[in-house]
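Researcher: Please predict.
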Amino acid sequence: MEQDVFISYSSKNKQTAGEICQILEQKKIKCWIAPRDILHGEEYGNIIPVAIKKARVFIIVFSEYAQLSRWVKSETLIAFDSGKIIIPFKIDETQPIGQMEMYLKGSHWIDAYPNIEQSYENLVKDVHALLLNRKTDLLAISKKKTNKPILYIVIFLALLSIIIYLSRTAKDLISTENTEIINAPNATIATTNINFKVNNNILYECVLTGNVEGYDYEIELNKDQQCIELTDQRDFDGDGLIDALICNIRACGGNAISNSFFFVSYGGTGYFKKSAEFGDCWNEPVIEIWNNQWSVIVESNNVGRNPEKKNFVKERYIFKDGKAVLVETMSKGKVAVLHEIKASVFHNGNENEEKYIYFDLDGDNKQDVIVCTYWDRWDSIFWEVRFGNGITTAPSLGCDRIGILDSKTNGVNNIVCGSDDVLTWNGKEYLGKD
């Protein structure tokens, strides 16, 4: 079924995305939004590309979190390649960089920050106008008797659009001619012109190439490295040659699997070397100078069952002698709580049980209860709060630990999810910082 609008957003901005969907549908504009429009058992990677191509307008709720989201990047790429009308709805001060800058550069932005709710009306007007223009164009093209001068104009505009598209595609190719190559303080000056590129025009079918002095070499990947992304390229090891940092998207269209990284370097005479994979990461890595050379920091929160690693670990790697070398490890502490339940209590045959924390959260001398159930796939706790006065709230948030803090907001104890994600009571429900 064809929809008017596809809404792309980071899960961190789901409230804003939901409000946009509700307002548009109140104006009789049909929307497609996940997860509402995905049936149980359907794969996101199969359904989303089809939904984007069937939509007439693509709205991206753009924010710091959208900039970092691989799903939002992939969805925006599909919309860009499909020639969809893209409306970025900007809800914070973040500016697009990298791939997102290329995809959104030619789009008409709605700068909703800081008055987001007041910008909804402008969004509705723009979508209405775009849909009306699209329908008018379709009616004009469908007429059997076409005026020849108009036909020539349509052909001219179509050719012009192709030229513009090709020029935009050319800008997508990261080259050393238009990209500043950043050298670490101890690096020598590069004497060989090397440029890495990932061809991901087809979702989840990627080819890694290295261009050396104008010649393209396809770099062989392992069977489990078929969904990759070029994270960065620079002289990581200080030998004067450009290296690549590659992200292996191990879920490859699914979920529940974090990403890893590996380095690729040029070995001379057409040979390329790959390091072993490192990291266990859901977020973008941080690249910074450490001890006078480039380093890569990856952060793992160890989602899922993996008792061999600590939760919330930052690891710093450098690229040395063709290897990713771990040089520093930082472990994250946990906020102290009054009472808590950990996901580990559901292990060893307790997966189907409910666990409870009894506590007077709102200070009305009535016993409240936090009811916890287990999600085995992510080794996480789903939970809901049942107040003694009859109010019930169930945040759609999985946590490896639920705890009650001594601090309060609006007279109700704050709750911590995981190590230090604090949720506060707004009078109706518990909400996080974002």
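Model: The chain is about 20% helix and 35% strand.
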